[in-house]
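User: Can you fold this complex?
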Amino acid sequence: MSVAPAIRLTDVHKRYEKREVLAGISLDVAPGSRLGLIGPAASGKSVILKLIAGLEQADGGTVTVLDHVLTGKREVQLGVVRRRIGMLFQNYALFDFLTVERNVAFPLEQRGGMTAHAIAERVAERLRAVGLFGSEHKLTAELSGGMKKRVGIARATVADAELVIYDEPTAGLDPVTTQKIYDLLAADHVRTKATVIAVSSDVAALAGFVDEIAFLYHGKIIYRGPAATIADAPDPMVRQFVRGELEGPLQDVRPEAP
Amino acid sequence: MIGERWMIALGAGATRISQEVGGILILTAQVLRALVPPRIDRRELVKNLYKMGNRSVPIVALTAFFAGALMVLQAGPFVKKFGATSLAGYGAGYAVLREIGPILIALMFSGRVGANNTAELATMTVTEQLDGLRSLAIDPVAFLVVPRVLAMMVMLVALTALGDLVALGGAAIVARSMLDIDWSTMYFSMADNLRPADFLLGIYKSVAFGAAIAMSSCYFGIAVRGGAVGVGKAVNAAVVAAAVSIMLLDFFMTYLVGG
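Assistant: Here's the predicted assembly.
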């Protein structure tokens, strides 16, 4: 008997005013696997992540996550699925009215079922893992971009979610920290066996973390293959993108997404 | 051609206002829904009560003092001329309790608290903090908007009651020091003529003004589009909408109770 995918997108369309961002995306992600999404700027990568988290609704097609159809569902119904998802936002989305410690503790506090002591221990462990132990009482406004990103990772992973979504987990970080972060994410994955979907512009680092990579172009997934061999993908557009070559079939640059 | 452009502009303006009024009404319905049964984050509520109420006391007291003082100062020459000093307290109190107090304090509250609230929510919206809450299965309306609406309504009522007291005090001080009307004349002028209904009308108005300020400031905060420019526009729109709402509500509430 085959196992149902943790994420299933079926012919998903998404439009912002006149611009079609997603033009019929179909995608399956098996439970426990790690998929990377790459593509030119404004190709709809973050939109796909928001559809999976139920933060946006598709204009057409079906989005199914952890056995729940999200399409057309109300906020209360979406909450049932969101409690099983951890998400790192591209722009951190940290709560600036809370300290670092309370930002990370927030998902656990809201879910309930844990003592204050257990939450404090779990938060301390996560902050130690991302190298921010000692910064618990700082407000997020006092942190650098890299530190904010690490707080976001700690918050996304603190509840051991079944599905973790990373939108640019290492953007703005130096190469050493980038590697440390991916090592941390990989160690977390070994421990939790969560399904992971990640978007990153740092293709080389992403390829070291995920199992497969999908290439998004003009609102469609035009290639999907093993991460380890992405630089030698049979599709010339993917090769050009991954290698950063100026010459090749990939030439047009689309306007920024809203 | 000019007429056509004028019509297009008028239509666009009417559409925009309809959208905004509709948005505020939908948000109001969401807030009411979140109150049954109450799902209020107590920590957020207490924080907002303190921030919006306590910190507004000095500016409200100052405004109210001079509002009361001005009422007496304006009426001074006439009450002196006609020997009607026994009506000075009544006149000042009547105007302050029913009109000047609630309106001035509400406008001050809108400028200080409402604008700040819009800027805060708008910044949270453009930095995806509201999406961050939703991703954790937390309803941003229940978590952020409801405590703010309650805090603004409660605190505007409290500040109006305090402001009424300070304004009457300001009126008495100016009457004594600048118009030689003694304390007892002012006191009995107020006590004998002012009715509880005069005070209550001002309080009812402050409830309505508080709701208008809260709903417009929260709506424009969470409906913001764009970055820093959008935040600025949202604050502007919220303050204008609140001021217009205050004047409209005041007119209709005064009209309904017969002036």
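The first helix of chain A runs from residue 45 to 52. The beta strands of chain A are 7-16, 19-29, 34-38, 60-65, 68-69, 85-88, 163-167, 195-199, 212-217, 220-226.
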